[in-house]
Amino acid sequence: MKKRLLFFLIGMILFLTSLPISTKMVMELIHDQKMDAEYAITNVNEGSPPTESTFHFNNHIIEVKEAIKNVDSYIDPWSNKIGIADLSLNIDGEEIYTLIDYPIRVEEVGLNRYYGEIAYLILEEKKSGKTQFIALLKKTKELPKEMPNGDIVGSVPPEKLRYTLYAIDEDGNLNNKSFSLPDRNALQTELLNAGAMAPYSIGYYTDAWEGYPTIFFPLLFPFVTLVLGFILVLVFFPIRKAKK
What we know:
Elements: H1 2-38, E1 39-43, E2 55-57, E3 60-68, E4 74-75, E5 81-91, E6 94-105, E7 118-125, E8 131-138, E9 145-146, E10 152-153, E11 162-168, E12 174-180, H2 186-194, H3 219-235
Antiparallel strand pairs: 1-7, 2-3, 3-5, 4-5, 5-6, 7-8, 8-11, 9-10, 11-12
Helix pairs in contact: 1-3
């Protein structure tokens, strides 16, 4: 009886520790299929050469104007030469918003200069066939630098990151929506990933699928441990024999 109880307890531990993360991972897979069926998102700056910062969508002109500041450039932790500039998003010649004193990659061209700060995206709704142009701006300024001891300073905790998207539909209507990294909806999650605007790849329910897979995770844990735990609980469930 003690041996049976021991295996039952082991099964319960395996099952209960595996259930929360495995549930979220399954939900994330279903969610990804749903989003793929509903939307097609294209980063207009994919491939080479980099896309120019002046972009035409239907009859509208979207452009980023930069005013470089007279400050010393520096090398960031990823070997990019960084300068400081005011970045103005303009639509049809009208200034929509300006990011003040933001980092730019001075040795890059086109939209590559604003990597991680501004992204141009095309959003297509597959069922209706309608498309929108989206300019996604990171409203939280970060100036990461590497210290002599190897520490990286100047970054902001992910929970404090703020964004605004400006969307132009096929009829020329302009809408905007602000959100934070912790408080985002499903579509905003997809847009952040497509635009490489988050500090790392993110999921809607969990980021577990975004990491580099190993034999231990996610193969052994949580799925094998979930199944094994369930089997142990089922087989070694303590049942009292009825007294005669």
